[in-house]
Design brief:
alpha+beta; 33 helices; about 35% helix; about 15% strand
Length: about 1150
Amino acid sequence: MTMQDLKRRKLDHVSSDVDEDASFASFGGSDEHEIDQDIDGEENDIIEDGNMRDGAADLDDVDEDENEQTDTVPGTLDEDPAGGLKLKQNRTDSAKTRHATLDAGGSAYVAGAFKSNVFKLQVDELLGQIRPRRGKREEVAEQALHALRKTLDSVAAREPQSVEASEQQLLKDSAVRVPFPDPRPPKDAKYKLMFAKPQGANVVGGYALKTSVRSKETVSIDMIVTMPSSGFQEKDYLNHRYFYRRAYYIACVAASLKAEYSSEYDVHFADLHDDHLKSIIVVTPRSPLSGQDAVKTAPRWRIHIIPSVGADTFPAEKLSPAKNCVRPAGDTKATPTPFYNSSLRSDMLMPSYLKLLNRAANDCDGFRDACLLGGTWLRQRGFGGRISAGGFGNFEWAALMALLLQGGGPSGKPILSEGYSSYQLFKATLQVLAMKDLAKSALVIGAGEATPVGDGLPMLWDAARAHNVLYKVTPWAYRQLRQDARTSLAMLGDQLYDGFDATFIMRTDSPLLRYDSTVHIPVSALLAESDGYQKLYNVLKRGLGDRARLVSIKSPSASSWQLGSPRANSDGITLIGLVVNPETVNRTVDHGPPAESKTEAAAFRKFWGEKAELRRFKDGSITESLVWTTGEQTVLEQIVRFLLGRHLSPDAEQQASFVGHGLSRLLRQGVSMVAFQPLMEAYKQLENDIRGLEGMPLSVRQIMPADSQLRYSSILPPLDVPGRQYRRPANTVIQFEGSTRWPDDVVAIQRTKIAFLLKLSSLLQEANTAVTARVGLENQDDDALNQGYLDITYDSGAAFRMRIHHDREQTLLERQLKDKTTASSLKESTARALAIYKRDYHKITAHTQAVARLCSRHPALSGTTRLLKKWFSSHLLGNHIAEEVIELMAARTFVQSWPWQTPSSVQTGFLRTLHWLARWDWRAEPLIVDLSGTGELKPAEVQGIKTRFEAWRKLDPSLNRIVMFAASNLDHDGTTWTDGRPQRVIAGRMTALAKAACAEVEEQLSALEPAGLFVSPLEDYDFVLHLDPSLSGSKKRRSGANGTTFKNLELAAQDDDSMVGFDAAQLFFQELETMYGSSVLFFSGGSERPAIAGLWSPQTAPRAWKMNLAYSTIPQKVRAKEEEENVRAEVNKQSILAEIARLGGGLVERIDVRS
C-alpha cells in the first residue's frame, strides 16, 4: 500500500459540538458503514462499566458493549480543587517505567506481531482515535456524579416493614413502584424489607479505567452502591429473596434521587444486561421541554447506579452452578439454577473483579489498548454484555484476558504474557476463543475443577472467586463468537488481504449479510417461558440437523421504564439466523432410526409427531422417515414452520416471515446448475464426436470451452428458455497438433483456418446425422483477426460456435510489433490484434475452466454470478462491464469471503458482493482474485499486479482508458477485460447503485422486496428507446413475433439453423454504437430490460460552426453582447432520434425524451 493510500484511509477526527477536548472518532468515507447511534439509547443501554462504545467506529447500538463491567477498576470520588470530581487511580512506578520503555522501543509491537508496517500504523491510528479523553461533557457528568454521591450519603433509613406495606408506602409517598422481578414476592411473605444507608459508592468500569471507547453521542459512568450486609438474612439467596430486597433498596434510592433532582435529571429504571432479576437506576440530564433548546435533545452523559453486596454475605458453595436455589413448594426434583446463582454471585464479586482488572492494567502495559481493540472487534460483530446481544461484551473480554494473564495453561501457567503488546494480546485472546470449546470443557483458572452445565453454555471458571465469568453468554451467541474468532484469525493470517478494515472498521452483523436465511417472529407469538429462547434453539438445532451449520437467535433488548410505572413487557421481533449447508439443505427425505431401535424410534416419533412415517427403502432397510415436498416453500422453510407450530405455538408458525430465497426466484429456472447439465453433456458429446472423426488433416490437441454457458454463469440457462428467439451458441476453441505446413503469414493463417472449418463441417455431418454445421464469417474489416467460425447444432437444441486456435499467430504478431520498420498505424492495429488473440485463445479459456471449477466447488457461486449479471443488465450497465469482470466480482466473494465465512446461499453471495461493490474504491484499489481457490496466487505475484496497477494510474491519471483494474491468478495484466471500458461515469453509477441497494437492504430487512433491487429510474437519461419485449427476449413471445402468424411456422423459424445466435436487439444496439457512439453514450438492458437509454456526449455541446463534424448538426445564430452575429453548431437531436427510430423499425415501440 502506498503512503497516499494510507493517508486516504486515515481515520478522520470529528470534533464534538460540546468541546474540542471531548471529540469523537469517525471512520470517514463509507456512509453505509456508519450507523447512527440511537439518541434514545438510554432506554436500552444499561451498562455495568461504562465501556465499549461505538463512537470509535461510527457504530450503532450504544446499548450493547456499554452495558458491561468491562475493564472495571476501583475508583474513589474526591473533590477537585476546581470543584469537579477526580477519579483516583494508582499506578506503580515500575509500570510507568515499563510503559515508557515499550513506547520508546516499540519492539514488542514489531517482532512478529504485525504482518506489515502499514497494518501497525493503522492499528496505532485506530487506538489514537478511540482512546477516551476528558472534556467539558465529562466534567459536567462528574459534577452530577459528585452531587448524587452526596445525596446517597444522606439518604434516611427506613424501618423494616412487610413486603406489601413497604411497596404501598413507597408508591404513596414518592410515586415509585418497586421493580420486583418475576415472580413477585408473595403478599404473605414472613420476611420484612428495610433500607439502610449505603456502605459506600464507587465509580467503576471502563470510564474509570480508561478502557471505554470514546463515545460519539453519550458518555456513560457506572457507580456501584454497596448495600449493608445487615439487611440480609442467611437464607436470602433462596427463592429470589435477595433480588426482592435488592429491588426495594434500589427503589428507595430512586425515591431519594427523584425528590432531590426531579427538576435537573431524569431518573428511571432499567434491567442490567437484560437480566430481569436485577434492576438499576439510570440518571440522565433532563430532556428539554418542547420549544426549549430543542436542538440538544439527546443526553450527553448517563450515570448508572448499580447495587452490590459484600463478598461474604452468602457462602460461595451455596451458589455454585450445580446447586438449586429456586425451590418451589413440593418440588423434590429441583434442577440446578446456574444463571440465577451466577447472577446473584456477580453482585457479590464486583469489587473483586474491579481489583483484578485494575491489577492487570497496571501490570500489563498493553492491557488497556487490548481492551479497546477487543471491544471494537466485538461491537462490529454485534456482541455486547446484554443477554440480547449474546452476553459477551467488554467485561467478559477484559476478565478473560486478565484471568489468562494469571493461568489457564499447562500446569496452571499463564496463557498470556505481561510483555505482550496490545495487538498480541488481542490476537492471542481470539485464539483462545477459537480453539477452546468452553461448552464441552471448562477453562479453569486457578486450583479446582469445573464442568459445563450443559445445553451448550460455556464455562470460564474463576476458581479463586468461584464464579463462571461467562454465565450470561447464550449457546447460540457462543457458537457465533467462536466462528467469528476463527474467521478473524484466518483473515489476519491471509498475507494477500489487508484485514484491518474487515477486523475493526466494517460492521458485519447485518442479518442478511451474515446469515443465509432469516426468520422473523413477533415476541408475542412465542411461548412466555423463562427458557423460551433456549427451547427454541434446542428445537431448531435438533430439527434442522446437518442442514444448518449455525442457528442464531437475536431477541429484542429490554427497554427502560419510569419510576412509577410497572416493568415494560417484552415486545418487538425475534430474529432467527440460519447458516445452511448447501449440500444438504434441500434434501427431501430424512432417514431416522431403524424400526428395531425402539427407544430412538419412539423419541423420533415424539419429536416429529404425525410427520414421521415408517418406510422401506430400496436397500431393504426399514426406518423412520420424513418426506418434504418441493414447491412454493423451500424445504428449509417447511421444516422451520413445522417445528414452530409443533413445539412452540401455532401463532409462531403463522406469523413467522422468512427471508432467504426471494432473490433466487428472480432467476429463470432457478439457481440450480442442473439447468446447465444438458449443454455440458452435449459439449462432452461434441468433444467425443470431433476426436472420433477420421480424415482430419491434423489430429486434435484440445477442445476448450470459452463461454459463460459452459461455466454455469450465463443469465439465461442454455436450453429451453421461454421468450428466447433463437438458440445462442456456446463459444468453444479447438487447437490442432503443430505442423510446419501452416503458412507463415497472419492473414494466410486466417484463410487456412476457414479451410479447416469447412473440412470439419463436412466430416461432422457425414459422421452424425443429428448434427448440423455451418461456417460463418466475422471481422471482415481486419484481416489480422479471426475470419471464420463453425456453428454446430445438435437436434437436442444444443449449439456451439467453434473457432480455431493456432499458436503461431502470437509469434508472428509479436515479431511484427518489434519490427522497427513497421508503420505506427500498422503497429497499433497489430497490438490490438495481439491483445484480442490473447484474450480469445488464452485468457478466456483459462477463465472459463477456473470459474467452472469454482462453481462445482461452491454451489451458490453460479446463482450469485447470474443474479449479479441480472442486476447489472437491469440497471442498463451490462454492455459496459464485461461479463468476465462481473464473474470476478462474484468469485471474489467466495474465494476471499472475509470478514464472513464462504456464502452458502445465492442471496448471501449476491448481497455480500453488492456490499463490497458499494465500498470498493476502484480508483485506488485493483480487483485481484485467486480463481484457483487454493492459494496459487503468491504474495510476490500480488505485489507485481499492484505495481502494474500503480503504473497504469501514473500513465493514465485521468482514467480515460483504464478505469477498473481486474486481475486474477490467470491474468496478471489486469486490463484484458477493462481496456477502454467502462468509463468513469459508468463505474461511478455502479458504485452509487450498489450503495443505494445496500441502504435498501439495511432499511427493509424482513420487508425487503427483492425485485426492487433490480429497478432504477429511467429519468436520468436524455432519451430511452423502449423495445418490443418479444423481440428482445425479455418476455414470452407473442404470436407472430417474428413475422409469422401460425404456431407451426413460428417453431420452424426458431429451428432455422441459419439463425443460430441471431439477436435482433443486440445487433440493433451494436449498430447504434457503431453509428452514433462518438456522440451518444448508450446503455442496454439486454435480455433483462427491453430498453436502450442514451446520454448525449459532452462533445456535442454547442460549438463554433465547422464542417465535417462526426454527428448531425444544425446551425444556430447567436448574437453576443456588442459583437457581430455568430453561428454555432448544435447537435441535431431530433434528426438523430428519427434516424434511430427508422433503423429500429418494429423493434422500437416508442422513444421517450427528457425535456
